[in-house]
Amino acid sequence: MKRGDEMIFKSIDQKIADLGFKETKNDKYGIEYERNNGRYIHKVALLHKANGKHILQSYDPALVVPGRIGNTCVGLSYRELVLFAKKMKRIGLKWHSRFDRQVETPPDRQTL
């Protein structure tokens, strides 16, 4: 449905694009998005893992040092997080929840 030149209902992809993200990669391993805000490049990757624990990564690639582990994450706003979570659900990469696996209750927390 359209009202003038504006769509009443936008797709998830259109909403992500409105936030400035462009899809840079889409294959069997997942989807990657990139946004340049002038100060840094913000990459978001929705990645498939063989063990079923699919992940979302948000980072600045300029801060990655080859061969080292570091925290190069870039935070997501609530709106960004919700849209990327919906996108993961839409493409079948479900969030891994601690409720999806059996978790034993520690002995100090067991009820008698």
Please tell me about this protein's structure.
The protein is α+β, with helices and mostly antiparallel strands. The chain has one domain (2-95). Helix content is 18%, strand content 26%. The protein has two helices and six strands. It has helices at 12-18, 78-90; strands at 2-3, 6-7, 22-27, 30-36, 41-47, 55-59. The strands form two sheets. A four-stranded antiparallel β-sheet has the order 3-4-5-6, with helices on one face. A hairpin with a 2-residue loop joins strand 3 and strand 4 (30-36). Helix 1 (12-18) packs antiparallel against helix 2. It is globular and about 45 Å long. Residues 94-103 have low confidence and may be disordered.
If you compute it from the alpha carbons, what radius of gyration comes out, rounded to the nearest whole angstrom?
A: 18 Å
Query: What is the makeup of the main sheet?
Result: 4 strands, antiparallel
Number of domains: 1
User: What is the spatial order of strands in the main beta sheet?
Assistant: 3-4-5-6
How do the strands and helices of this protein lay out in sequence?
Blueprint: E1 2-3, E2 6-7, H1 12-18, E3 22-27, E4 30-36, E5 41-47, E6 55-59, H2 78-90
Antiparallel strand pairs: 1-2, 3-4, 4-5, 5-6
